[in-house]
Batch of 2 targets.
Target 1
Amino acid sequence: MADEFPFEISPMFEGERIRKEGMHVELAGPKSKGFELVRAADMNDVEDGRFTLIGPDLSDMEEGSRYPFAMIYKIAGELVETDLESIVERRNHEFQNYIQGMMHLNQRDDVWIRVGKEAVSKGLNSFEHIAKAVMMLFKNELPFIEKVEAIYITDMSEIEKEIDNTRAVYKARDERTRGLHDEDVDTFYGCTLCASFAPTNVCVVTPDRISLCGAINWFDGRAAAKVDPEGPQFAIPKGELIDDASGEYSGVNEFAKKLSSGEYDRIKLHSFFEFPHTSCGCFEVVGFYIPEVDGIGWVDRDFAGTAPNGLQFSTMAGQTGGGKQVVGFLGIGVNYFRSPKFIQSDGGWNRVVWMPRMLKEKIFQDIPEDIRAKIATEDDAKDIESLKSFLTAKNHPILERWVEEEAEEEAEEEVPAKAQPATQRGFAAPQMMQMPANFMPSMPMMGGGSGGVRIILKNAKVTVEKITILKED
Ligand code: SF4
């Protein structure tokens, strides 16, 4: 089908990773600027198949360098409506990854693309090849698109001119779900676009829970399912409400079982700890449990530093992704912070103790006023000790949980020592938590204070050849 292109096009290239050594150029990404945007347009305003490039082409780019990069697609068709823009935009991610030698990560103004050296050596020397391949796939795979044209920009000043308008479009899309809630609808929407690299992922999009990639809201899911019911976005009848606080529905559970091939049969949409939503790897933000303060921190892709637990975003993303229910970590879209049901079964905002300053500024108006000043950033807390001091000084509501924990500990101390369970004391993880095997070493627990020896293991590997257990006299 793609003889006209100097590369193979196939879903089998999704998941292809292009490392720094193998890349010809890097486009957009965390160290540059860029975006992707799809706009619905009138039939007369779209010249089908047309490609425009503003700025240098691939052949003018220096090997091993980084460039800004934006992609704008105008689509038209009788069934094309504004609600479909996000869905088509998300398919740009998928279709660019079908191209051998291309790697497209993230979405919206977080896009990060690499073109491999090998692809360039085989003749991929112009963005026109890429744009034409993507336009061909748009029309083949999304028959409601009758006309499409592409404008790619590699000139920084042009991108800077466009980026504010583009962000305003994203914002307007996100605002649409504000007045609509899970209880107002009978149907949620599922998405399987990420199933190729996270086969057990179950993505459920509801009015109160935007997709974890941040690119698909409930209206987008509805529009996509309407025009292409056999496509990757589909309706999930809600079924019975099982638990309001955690957002558990029989219809979601049925789909969870089906989509994960039986691996999961329960998903609680607004829970952090118990049967949480799966995380494929496209999340914009990772939440991480901090057992030492019994609170939850959040870190986004743009934060290059280290969170108070000693880990960076990339390390935690590695723990979180893969389409699993990883208790203790949760991937979300930024807009979920704006949901009135945000992790409501685990305390909502009262459980949030830390986030990077930039992320906090981005969502500042959406944080309940009484807690805004009580959430630490990297300026307030760089490690667990400084986080504890900050939370104490600010009288963060999490302190109430510490008092409860202490009361429980005191009650336990009254039980004779031999009757105590052999668990470490301190701020224990909630009872239902089953940490992954590699979870605990990177999150040292606080010592108990009952004497003896405290051992803190940080990113340690412990090999034990033999254990001898002796009966106590
Ligand atoms: S993260 Fe979820 S909603 Fe977004 S593209 Fe992947 S499967 Fe679809």
Target 2
Amino acid sequence: MEHWTRYWNTTNALNSFAEGEYSTNYQGDILHFWERILKDTPQHSTIIDLASGNGALAVLAYQYGVSHRYNFNIHAVDASDVGVAGRLTSFPSSVADALANIAFHSNTFIENMPFDDASADLLISQYGLEYSELNRSLIECARVLKAGGRLCALMHHTDSVIVKDSKAGLRVLEHLFAKNGFHTQCMALLAHARDLLGKGGSIHDDALFQTLNKQLLDTAKHDIDHFSDSNERLWFDSFLSKITPFLYRVSQDSHRCCAQYFHDLTLYRHRLKDQIHASMDHRKVTALRVALMANGFEVSFTPMYMDGNQVGIAMIAIKLS
Ligand SMILES: C[S@@+](CC[C@H](N)C(=O)[O-])C[C@H]1O[C@@H](n2cnc3c(N)ncnc32)[C@H](O)[C@@H]1O
């Protein structure tokens, strides 16, 4: 879970799309969806945010509860080590206040939650439930929910712009990290520069440095032509813009800095793969419907749109008995 733990511990964002176009994904129709659900939740209810990350949805539920005097009791579970409780001061005070009042359960899987049978009124999840092993997590959700309680989720869907965009990002990353591709050549160049500068040499009159540099430039030009799709170009340009400063002003430290950046990119690649793998499609939605009904739920699914673009599929499941 390093790919999630590092993300949640190095961002002050509460959700996982803070760096992208959908950083505002708890607004508009998505916000209204969650507000409708919270409005119908009785006072003093126990609510659990499943696969919470830094707790964007748990915070939304807490703040809704405070402003409507619902006094919710809120928990948040995530398989990674989210660690927000240890760094509350890095968040704005209104958010820190909400986070301090949420019981976070790190390193906790939806498939095996530390809650009593029939102890929760509402289970909520945004881009989270679908990451779990659904055949096991649904049994656990049914166990933890009271009769009449609801399991509500907004899930990734293969038709959504988010998933299509992630696929473009993943293609770019796979290409950057391909055998003897941009990543390998860049690190070879910077390792050579580090050794050379360490011995008091100069990169300007070093033939090998110039050759490696030319090779890397050719690869970058080739990659630019390779990514004809506008989404892929955006991803490629954004990665390149982080690396080029180290190549324009090569120092002994450039190798270390770039290695750290590439490591972060490998974790990013892992998160994108997770997301694409977790995304629902028609077949998975049908299987989920059948599994929920087998576990005593009544369920409905609706595609979720923002600004005319599909951003996922919303599910409301009610535990009948
Ligand atoms: C897309 S992120 C969470 C998004 C968050 N709910 C939000 O609104 O931004 C997916 C999360 O699922 C967590 N996760 C993956 N598998 C899990 C599981 N089986 N149980 C609990 N959490 C899981 C990951 O650690 C990660 O934090």
